[in-house]
Write a structure and sequence with these properties.
61% of the residues lie in helices and 0% in strands. By secondary structure, the protein is mainly α. The protein has a single domain (2-158), classed as Orthogonal Bundle (Hypothetical protein af1432), CATH 1.10.3210.
């Protein structure tokens, strides 16, 4: 879980730079978005809500809290609508596809992964079947075509490959 959150932080920082948003806040959203996974036992009916409550109590910005809460739409019954919400949903989800792609490479290192391979794997529904392609494709709702989004995410994760063991 820690490696997933670190990867999501890296992708969110890259997205913040792309959109000229607050890199610190967007990075924190990525780092903390799954803070309640163990507390809620990843129950999709409540996951994200506890984290939002903790972040609110600690005084984090409302747009960050909202994005964290909305990364799991099932808990809220609402649809994502903001740039931040879509970015976090797409950004945290593509990390799983990138990790799965890395692990099928002979050397199992992120340095070998090409963004086009991630896009190719995206089309293979049986590959990393638990990764929501719909969530990843929310990158297009914020104006980033999938191939460009894959480059951004892979490059961001390569910067922290040592930290995430890839």
């Amino acid at each position: 879980m820690l490696k997933h959150c670190l990867a999501t932080e890296a992708v969110m920082k890259a997205l913040a730079r792309h959109f000229e948003e607050d890199e610190h806040i967007w990075g924190l959203a990525g780092l903390l978005h799954d803070l309640d996974v163990e507390m809620t036992q990843a129950d999709p009916k409540i996951h994200g809500l506890k984290t939002a409550e903790i972040l609110r109590e600690e005084g984090y910005p409302l747009d960050m809290i909202d994005a964290v809460k909305m990364h799991n739409e099932e808990a809220t019954g609402l649809e994502r609508t903001s740039l931040f919400q879509h970015a976090l949903a797409a950004g945290e989800t593509i990390t799983g596809l990138i990790v799965a792609t890395t692990l099928v490479y002979p050397d199992k290192t992120l340095a070998s992964v090409k963004a086009r391979s991630v896009v190719k794997r995206m089309k293979q529904k049986a590959f990393a079947a638990s990764v929501s392609r719909d969530h990843i494709l929310e990158c297009e709702k914020i104006g980033i075509p999938l191939p460009e989004f894959a480059v951004l995410a892979v490059d961001a994760m390569k910067e922290i490959a040592g930290e995430i063991g890839l």
